Amino acid sequence: MATMPAPAALPPVNHFGRIVGIFFSPKETLADVARRPSWLLPIILLAVLGLAATYFFTQRVGWESFAMKQMSQDRSFEQLPEDQKQERLRLALPWFAGIGYFFGIAGNLLFALIMTLVLWGAFNLLAGAGLNFKTSFGIASHSLLPGVVSTLLFFPVLFLKDPSEFDLFDSENPLPSNLGAFLAGDTPKWLMKLAGSVDLFIIWIIILLALGFSAANPKKISLGKALGIIGGIYALLTLIQVGFAAFS
Known about the structure:
The chain has 248 residues and is mainly alpha-helical. The chain has one domain (19-247). Helices cover 71% and strands 0% of the residues. The protein has 11 helices and no strands. It has helices at 15-24, 26-35, 40-60, 64-71, 75-78, 82-127, 133-143, 146-160, 189-196, 200-216, 223-247.
């Protein structure tokens, strides 16, 4: 009796094809990433866009309002005379700009590393998945690519919006992608944090992460289990943030 031929392996996707595939065929693309992990190209792309976004924010809006809002949270700063406030602000502005550029360029790399460590440990501990760091990091790096869309949408908002109304702390700035954007300005902080956590881009990233990790070891990690673990971790972090906002 003749045996059936084994199904042909899917052809590998090149690095640029993976960038496109995340948006149009995420399941197949992340399965390919799980088989042959890589991370450099998505991190470079996000870093270049982050640098551009930070540069244009600096030129269009500047860091003064951002720095003032941060420094105003210190009661001792609020008690200073106006001239001393302005002097402190002048000295602090280069630091705020430097930190802004650092996170604009390296923020996604740091976030991908932290996310990888958390999920790598969680899936190995809770699901016995036996994943390695390289595979987990490749999945995490590619799952952050919705940031390309949010950054590209950031640019027209940045140039169309009045700079005096552009507030990085406001839930609807720069993009109204979460429920907090639709709440009134006097909404309690804890409720704003909770509503702000329901964000389209975060949900998109969670789904991509679940697709990637379930493809990395489908015998141990079903898509439902992956969504449950990732969603549970995100819910826990959100509750911690909401708690701090409620009691601060």
